[in-house]
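@channel sequence for tomorrow's demo:
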Amino acid sequence: MMPQTLDTDTAWNLWKTRCAATPPAAFAFYSSLLGGIVTDPALMFVPADDHLVHRGDGVFETIRAVEGALYAMGPHLERVRTSAAAIGLRVPMDAEAVVAALVATVRAAGRPDALIRLIVARGPGGYAVNPYESRGPAVYIAVYPVSAPFMQKHPEGARVRTSAVPLKPGVMATAKTCNYIPNALMKKEAVDAGVDFTITFDERGFLGEGATENMAIVAADGILRTPAPERILAGITMTRCAALAAAQPDAFGLRGVQQDRISRADVVSARELLIFGTSCEVVSVVEFDGRKVGDGAPGPVAAALGQALDADMRGNAAWRTPVF
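structure tokens (generated this afternoon):
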């Protein structure tokens, strides 16, 4: 059966009906192309000819709103600009304008606790691969639900296996671009295998990262070790937790904090294996590739870091940008 050509009113009514039949994925959406914020899910769109859509040509950040404030705004804005510069993409708004748009969109959503996706896209203009075809960059912001941190939902800890997806090379690893096919395949691996996360190792056997998470170990000598930054996206949650631990290692039962290359043997022999992420926060891994991590129970360092991060998100005024 050949599809029919729809007139504008028919197409719009069909689209509105479809959107109304499913729960909205976001509470509010900002588009620099529209020049404002919408709360009707039917209007939360990105043009199909935006190179973000058909080439993954853009960069993004996921920011956390906690009790009415945006957490770690400065590091997130710095990373989005660094990532954009790495792929030759101009951010069409200055930092003050981006913060104003973020705050206004969260206010329109009316949610003091939420996740906020900030996207800088190459922009619409056509369907070729040439980025200069775009008429100019665009900014999109979506405010959407945040779930409870992983350990609150799964106090027994996480099961992890090694991913078969190759680690990203060079700037594809260190810039937070919207080209996330490898990441999506890693998550698919985890779901298909019935585990919580998969993690990568580079060609030399050194620890990489998860689909959207950073990894670290507590070594047998009591050192919290985070991976060297050459082949990973240095996550803000991991970086912040490492800084908190480095400031008072004794408070976390540590002898120190170190950034270096971590081998598979190091992971296997670790006292604890930790996962960090904006959404999952701090996760304790209890099983890696079918073998117990440590004594097979969630570790004390992960628990202490999780508590410290939660306190920092809720009480560190220097890292909170008020919204409400």
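heads up for whoever presents: The mean pLDDT is 97.
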